[in-house]
Specification:
Elements: E1 2-8, E2 14-22, E3 25-33, H1 45-56, H2 66-74, H3 81-91
Antiparallel strand pairs: 1-2, 2-3
Amino acid sequence: MELLQFGKSNRDGKKLKIVLIKDGKKKTYHFGSDVSTTYAEGASQTKKNAYLARHRVNERWDEINNGSLSRYILWGSHQSIDKNLKSFLKKQSIV
């Protein structure tokens, strides 16, 4: 898998997008609500814990999808989108 682009989403209601080459095809994911403040943008640990508890039930965080991108990039270990993105790319073996 290969990273082609990462940045602001052009889709209404979404915060970020990532473009990957997956199985030889270009795949674009738009993720994150554009009206919320996430952990990577300064939200509290309490808000992060609430987000994780709310979404844990319905999300498949072991796959690459909009939910896992939000979870690991916007609500990841660091209060930095760049650090969380690097961790996610490494975890998924994306170059």
